[in-house]
Structures are given as structure tokens and as C-alpha cells.
Task: structure prediction
Amino acid sequence: MAGSLVAAFAAYGIWGFRATAVLGFAVRSSTPLALAAMCGILCERTGVIDIGIEGQMLLGAFAGFFGAAAFGVVAGVFAAVAVGALVGAFLALCAVTWRVDQIIAGAVINIAAAGFTSFLYRPGRVIGSLPAWRIPLLGDLPLLGPVLFRAQPLTYLTVVVVIGLQVTLVRTPWGRRTTAVGEHPGAADTVGIDVARYRYGNVVAGGALAGLAGALLSVEITGSFDRGMTAGRGFLALAIVIMGRWKPVAAWAAALFFGVLTGLVNQLNFGQVIDIPPQFVAMLPYATTIVVLAIFGTRVRPPAAAGRPYP
Amino acid sequence: MSESRPGEAGAVPQARGVLLEVRGLTKRFGSVVANEDVSLQLRRGEVLALLGENGAGKTTLVKMLFGLHRPDGGEIRLAGEAVRLRSPRDAIARGIGMVHQHFQLVPVMTVAENVVLGAEPTRRRFVDRRRAAAEVRELSERFGLAVDPDAVVEDLPIGAQQRVEIIKALYRGAEILILDEPSAVLTPEETDELLGVVAELAARGVGIVLITHKLREVMEAADRVVVLRDGRVVGEVAPADTDEAGLAALMVGRSVVLRIDKQPASPGEPVLGIQGLEVDDDRGRRAVTGLDLEVRAGEIVGVAGVQGNGQRELAEAICGMRPRIGGCVLLQDRDITGLGARAIHDLGVAHIPEDRDKHGLVGSYSVADDLVLNRFDEPGFARWGRRDRAAVQRWAEQLIAEFDVRTPDVHAPADSLSGGNKQKLIVARELSRASVLVVAAQPTRGVDVGSIEFIHRQLVAARDRGAAVLVISAELEELLAVSDRIAVMRDGRIAATFAGASATPEAIGLVMGGATGH
Ligand SMILES: Nc1ncnc2c1ncn2[C@@H]1O[C@H](COP(=O)(O)OP(=O)(O)OP(=O)(O)O)[C@@H](O)[C@H]1O
Ligand SMILES: [Mg+2]
Result:
């Protein structure tokens, strides 16, 4: 969070008007990442590792787009959520009931999603995307107005999801039990918490969020669908989960950090302040991920039971 | 903990005050009969000790009472009513609590969160943390179980974690509390506190089933003792009518020597030389702080100390399982600092680790495979890169006979052994290989009195063969029985050293507690 702020003010100070562009880009590009990271957090905090987020997002984007094309934008969003949840249920079935290796199950989801969406993909269609909601008064603020208060509906929804998840995880019985199931399922079991039920529930809910993240890409941001349009965001989300130490708000800050970083480099490039080949710009988030994980990765502690079937 | 129970008024007279009754309970695992026709009663406010050799069936019995195993025959009656306990959930709902040997606590959550987990007090859908903490505080005061509700569990010493487990059971309204070898992991002071708590609970009407191998605890805490042998009840006594030797005899079926005879040591060349050793614990804090120690061939050095003063880290550092931050470790004048566990093992170091399930054996392997874990690739057990199964089996059968490891056969998975028998398996493996140095951490944890005597003899035998032996133990008595020298560890270094003959529990206890040594 602090990093993003510093970068933002630096940008504002030096290039004035471009700051709006940078931050606008940051918010837009970080929202799907943040939502996808919420999926990762939900799953891992109950002890299931979901590396299939990428595939869930892709299927969500796909279902969202064609749902929107056929029945309208709102239906598209619901279709994306449903498909994501369905894939989540499949992952839970693999991980909890069949006790399949969770990494393999996730990889299967990714491969199947890529193949399936490419196979059914028909190029050339464009739909209208979700309209932006301008919040009265706040939307007229300088800098912050265009960045935060003239966003599209799913962006606002993401804010609600992130904060809601943070509060429920820390404060409600459901959140504490979820944490217990992910840290020490034996302890949860012996006090009468149904470990399998919690894992199913959270992995399905996480899948729904990943699907929503997909819908954000296709329905809200671009209004189109493209092969492999998630472009590794699902994996980036996994890194964001780690950087955010499995905490929703912190993960959101990490996502924003990536957004600001890419936005900044983009702007510098457009403005011909620096000249980096676009391939390197595209590489930036992933390169940063490796560096960040190398620095923080060993010092953070994932939920103790993540990846392990119970009993 | 309600004062009156609905079932009680109308119950049959002789059942008055009987919380739990077990009739003809039987449990088989394949061909093994773990419990056969076991009958017993537990009354309100009573401490019932279950005593028996390793593998006698104590854990199996209480697991049935807590819904972890289903009986194959017989019945369990609670307050006069026959019940079927399908899971711990059922048992908890009926007022049975159990403190497992491996604590079922979430390390990263606070004491209060752990206690209320699954039955949280709420306020407007949120966990009411203040009430949770208040409830914990109330229980902790009422029963003399000192814990801080806001402490994070992983920061607490083992004894405090155990108190959290007890509070957890009480919070759920336990009227029957089962403790399976609760003192195996405690320091002597913690054990005394625990026995105080047990007495307090009993005075308030809780019925307690206490499993332990320590006869002193039985004599001190129990109202009644039921002795199991080979899954059957073979006797019932009141501690007042017997003594420790009597209990031991009843358990093992012969008289047991509680103190072993040994020749005075004749130490030779130094085998293990430690200079200025520094080692970190799991959380990166310095646990061993500039420790010097020497162990010679043909002597047993015991390491005493309050748990958590770096003993575990010391043993692991010697055996190459933990990186050394500073100083050096010499084995027969060779610097082994920086060598890995395998390399050190190959130099002739035997290691009985403190945590037997984590570092001592592979639970899913057969007993035979676990018994050759340290030498499966030696010529006698492997030929042309292939294992010689017949040789492994012959060797394993010889070892289980010699070390009295109770298992149906050597092909059974190690996980199916009782706790004490797992320990004996590890001891058998480590002490049956020729070695120059034996590092034994808590070598008799969870082992019955008869087998303790045997393991002590084996340690002395290793010494007499010329090995240097380092014994780390929380049991002062054990150290006094086997050691030729006793080093007391405090704050990560040796605070004092006593010659075996001159050592007294009082003198050692003083140094352990912080008095400056000689
Ligand atoms: N899950 C299991 N599968 C097969 N056999 C088992 C299983 N659990 C226990 N046994 C067997 O049942 C017998 C009784 O074991 P139990 O653990 O009850 O002994 P115990 O009295 O608690 O011994 P200890 O003092 O060593 O803890 C042993 O012979 C053991 O091998
Ligand atoms: Mg046992």
C-alpha cells in the first residue's frame, strides 16, 4: 500500500496530468488480479491449493462474454460466476473427496480451460461492456474522482468483496473455523467442525470469485473475448496471495502495486520518456513477482495444512 | 459441570454417581485383539488410572470412549444409558473430553480462539472476543489452570498448551476427562502442576481417566487403578493398598528393578568435543549460546535442564539436522561442523530423536523396513542394488524379539504400533548398529517401567562396548540412573557438571532453576 502511494505521488508530482492515467490504469488492471487473489486466499486458508485460478478465470471470461452476447451483460456476469463455482466444485471433488494431488488437479483445470475456450472460440464479436457508475460529488474530485469514483460496477463490487472477506475471515465464527481448517484440520475436526464441508464451501465460493474476475476482463474491461486473454493473471494472483500473506486487504494492496508499476512504465513509454520494448513491459509483473517472492517467499508462512488432504 | 443431571434422580441405586460404565468392550485390529472383554466404571469426582505395558490396549480403550474407534463388542454406558459414539463430536456432545498426546490446537490462533473454536460466543454475528476471553479466564481461575487468553498458542510452553486443551474440554462442558500420557511431554514442575489441576477437577466432580507410565503419578493422583495386560483387565487396586513396586509387578507380571546396577565408567579418548556451539531454534532465536561439552569413549553423559533451554537444538545440531551458527563440533578430532545428517550418521553416530513420529520412523513403512532404515543399503541387507528381503526380515525378527517390540509381525505398518512400542523400535534400530557416539533424546518417553529398565541396560551396554553416550532427558531419575556425569543446561549452555556419584536431585534442581553452579 505504502509503495503504491509513494509511486503515485511521485508520478503526480513529476508528470501532473499523467498521474490520472497511471492510477486509472492501476485500478483497472489490479481489480481482476485482486479478485483472483481472493479466490486463492479463500482456497488456501481452508487448506486447498488452487493453481487452477488461471483456468477458472479464462472459463469465467469465456462464459461471461458469450453469456453477455446472448442474454445481456448481467446474465454474462452471472454465467461467469456460475462456471467459476462449478470448476471450484470440481477442484474440491478432486482435492477433498478423491484426495488427488492438488497441484495436478489445478494443472488439469488450466489445460482443459485453455483447450476448451480455444476450441469454442469464434473471433470477431464485440459486446458492449458494463457502463461506468459515476458517484455523485466524489466523482468530481480532482485526481481521485476519475480514478476511484467513475469506475465500472464490478470494480466497486471488488472493493466490497475484499473488505468483506477481510472482516469475515478475522471476525466471524465462519472465518475462524476456516482458518482452523486450513491450519490444523485435526483440531477443527475434534471440536466438531466438518472439515470437508468447509473446504467444499470455500473452494466453490473462491471459484465463483475467479469466474467473476474473468468476467471483469471480458465483460467489464474489454468487451471482447480472446484466446488466452487471462495471460497469466491467475498465476500472478497466486504470487499476490503470498505477498499479501493470505490477507485480503494486503493482497489487494499488492495487486495495486503491480497495477501502478505497469501503469507507470506504460506511461513512461507512451510519453517517450524511456524506450523499452513492449515485450519487456509485458514481462515486468512476472519478473517483479520472481524478485518479490525470492525476497519475501521464505519469510512468510502459508496455512500449515495447505495442499494436504484430510484425514 | 451442571450440578444436577436429569438422568440421576431416577437411576438405579448402584449406578448413583457412576458417570461412565464400560461392559465387555472388545476391539480387534485384524488378528490383533487390542481390547478383550474390558469392563470398568468411572464415578463422579474420581481419578481412575489406567496402567499397563506398552501395547496393553490403554490408548485403544480411551479412543473408543472418545468416538475415535468403534468397538467390535460390548457397550459404553453414560449415566446409565447405553450410547454409540461415532465420532469425537458425539463424545463431546455427551460430556466427554480428551487431551490427546499430540495437542489438537491451532498454533497461530490465540488461547481464547482455540478454546471457543466451533462453539464461539457471538455478538451480532461476530465472534465476541471479549466474552471468549472472559470465559477462558473464568475457567482458568475456577480450576487453577493458569493461562493468558490472549497469548498465541505457538508461543506457549508445552505445559501451558496442555492446560489450554483441558480448558477447551471444560468449556465444552466435559464431565469426563481423558488424559492419555499427559506427563510424557512435561517437565517435572509442569507435571506437579498438572496433578494439582487433576485433583482440583476431581474435587469439583469431574471424572478423570488418567493413563500414565509413571508410577509416582499414579500413587499421588489416582483413587483407583485398573491394570490392563494384553488387552484384558488383570487387576484393580487402590494406591493406598500397594506401592510402586507392587504396581510394577502387577503390570508386568514380574518384579521390576527400578534402579540398575552398572560398573563404574572407564572413560577413554574424547569422542565428542563441542566448542562454543551456537544454534538457532525454529523461530530463529539463539537457543544454544556458546556451549562447550566433551563426551569420552566409554562414558555416559547426561544432559539435564528445564525443557526449552536448548537441549533439543543441541541434539539436532550434533546430528546434522540443524545448521550450526557458530562454534564447532568434533567427532574423534574430526570437524563435523557443516556435515549433513547422513554423513554424520555414516561416521558412526546413532540418534534417538526426541520427536519419534516426526524424525524417528516412517509411519507407513513396515516394522521391518523401519528397523533397517539406518542400514538398508549395507551389504548384509542389499545385493547388487537390490534389497535382500529375507535378510531384512530375519534381522527384524531378531530385533523385535530382543527388544520386546510388541507387534503381530514385522510386516505390520509402524503406525499401528502403540506409542511405547514405536519408541522401542527406534531404540532397537539405533542401538543395534555399531556406533562411536549415541545421542539419545528422551530415550524412554512413553515406555513402560519394564522396558525402561531394559533400555537403560542397553545404553550402559553401548557404553561398555566403548561408545560415547549422550543422554538428554527431562527425567532426572533417568539421568541419575544411567549417567556417569551429568551436565546441566541452562540458557543454551552448560551451567554446571556433576559427577554421577555425587549428583543429587536437589543439587541439580537448584542449578536448573538458576543457581550458579560449581
Ligand atoms: N490402528 C491400529 N491398527 C492395528 N493395530 C493397532 C492399531 N492401534 C493399536 N493397535 C494395536 O493394538 C494394541 C494396543 O495398542 P494401544 O495403542 O492401545 O497400546 P497402549 O496400551 O496405549 O500402549 P502404550 O503404552 O505403548 O501407549 C497394540 O498391539 C497395537 O499394535
Ligand atoms: Mg498409548
